[in-house]
Design goal:
The protein is mainly alpha-helical. It has one domain: Winged helix-like DNA-binding domain superfamily/Winged helix DNA-binding domain (Arc Repressor Mutant, subunit A). The chain is built from 6 helices and 3 strands. The chain has a 3-stranded antiparallel beta sheet with strand order 1-3-2. α2 (32-44) packs across α5. The radius of gyration is 17 Å and the shape is globular.
Amino acid sequence: MNQDHCIPLLTQISRLRMARAHTLLSTLSVHPSQFFLLSLVEAKQDVSQAELAKMLLVKPPSLTVMLQRMVKNDLIYRYADADDARVMKVTLTDKGRELLKEGQHIFEIIEKETYEGFSDQEIKQLHSLLERIQRNFNPLHQQQEPVC
């Protein structure tokens, strides 16, 4: 197989999954990127905005716009760090936790659809290969500023 065809295929798969997530998450009135952000905040517990921007590979001002919308929708709460008031931390509200719980079911559906017809071994192998691609890009990304 020609390796030139793999990256466009990965891009198309990513877009198809995003479109599917958008369709299913619209019942909860949340965008997939907001849902992903909620998942990160839950996993990291009281994470700073700067840390979130790094994890999402975006510039802090871009993240601030998304966070403002989520504060307005009562999904997250932002507050100044107790040790350094210049550092803004982010945590989930009760509404954000509930939405995350409801959305987990949606992503279980998407995962099931994604791997339909795959054996457990094939899923593990695919995951391993994708992690290798990610590792190839990590050092390159760390040398660059986020583009958005």
